[in-house]
Amino acid sequence: MNTVLEIRDLCKTYIVNKRQNNVLRNVSFSVNDGEMTGVMGPSGSGKSTLLYTVSGMDKMTAGDVFFNGKNLSGMHENELAKMRLEDMGFIFQQMYMMKNLSVLDNIILPAVKSSKKKESNKAIEQRGRELMKRLGIAEIAENDINEVSGGQLQRACICRSIINDPKIIFRCG
Ligand SMILES: Nc1ncnc2c1ncn2[C@@H]1O[C@H](COP(=O)(O)OP(=O)(O)O)[C@@H](O)[C@H]1O
Ligand SMILES: [Mg+2]
């Protein structure tokens, strides 16, 4: 089975007012293709920190993270951003939708911005609409972000997270 994510001896230390907070201490695990992995722990135990470091949003203090066999440590900011856009999906509790775009335009934004883009914007839009239909929210495609229910918006976030057919989906919160 293919290993999508491999984490070896990951450490993350925050320093606040000269005090060290060793939030992640030698965390190691891997996630294989088709596998679902849950991370549990009390508030403040480091779940969000783990997500930010393994997706390259924040720098790790020590250790190695391999995504698709590629070591994140050697990657530049732009490369990490491209990796998140094209090969990772995110479903945040806070949702982070663009308020000036419709629900559909939010959903297809990652595909429109992808450098791997092979389809026309029209074809991407069609795919976005099909995804929305599958998730039961076809009727809100043209709505503003503030014109939908919380549950509908959650489902829109799911659509957005899979529009680029990512190798891994992070769902947090
Ligand atoms: N940007 C930051 N700077 C300094 N300390 C932080 C930062 N983010 C989180 N922490 C600290 O790291 C610890 C883990 O936080 P976090 O990963 O958000 O926990 P969880 O998501 O499990 O609730 C907490 O003690 C928190 O105060
Ligand atoms: Mg958290």
What would you note in describing this structure?
- The chain is built from five helices and six strands; from the N terminus they run ββαββαβαααβ.
- It is of the alpha+beta class.
- It has two domains: 3-75, P-loop containing nucleotide triphosphate hydrolases (Rossmann fold); 92-172, no CATH class.
- The protein has a four-stranded antiparallel sheet, covered by helices on one side. Strands 5-6 form a two-stranded parallel sheet.
- The chain starts with a strand and ends with a strand.
- The model has no long low-confidence stretch (mean pLDDT 96).
- The site of magnesium ion has 2 residues, from helix 1.
Task: Describe the SSE topology.
Elements: E1 3-16, E2 19-32, H1 47-54, E3 62-67, E4 70-71, H2 77-87, E5 88-92, H3 103-113, H4 121-134, H5 150-162, E6 168-172
Parallel strand pairs: 5-6
Antiparallel strand pairs: 1-2, 1-3, 3-4
Helix pairs in contact: 3-4, 3-5
The chain binds adenosine-5'-diphosphate (ADP) and magnesium ion (MG).
Adenosine-5'-diphosphate (ADP) binds next to β1, β2 and α1.
List keywords for this structure.
about 170 residues; Rossmann fold; 4-stranded antiparallel sheet; binds adenosine-5'-diphosphate
> Which strands sit side by side, in order, in the main sheet?
2-1-3-4
So what's the overall shape? Answer: globular
Which small-molecule ligands are present, each listed once? Answer: adenosine-5'-diphosphate, magnesium ion
Major sheet description = 4 strands, antiparallel
Provide the low-confidence segments as ranges: none
Helix percentage range: 25-40%
Beta-strand share of residues: 25-35%
Quaternary organization:
single chain
Mean pLDDT: 96
The counted number of beta strands is 6
Distance between the termini: 28 Å
The SSE order reads: EEHEEHEHHHE
What is the tally of helical segments? 5
> By helix and strand content, what is the structural category?
alpha+beta
Domain unit count: 2
Radius of gyration over all CA atoms, rounded: 18 Å
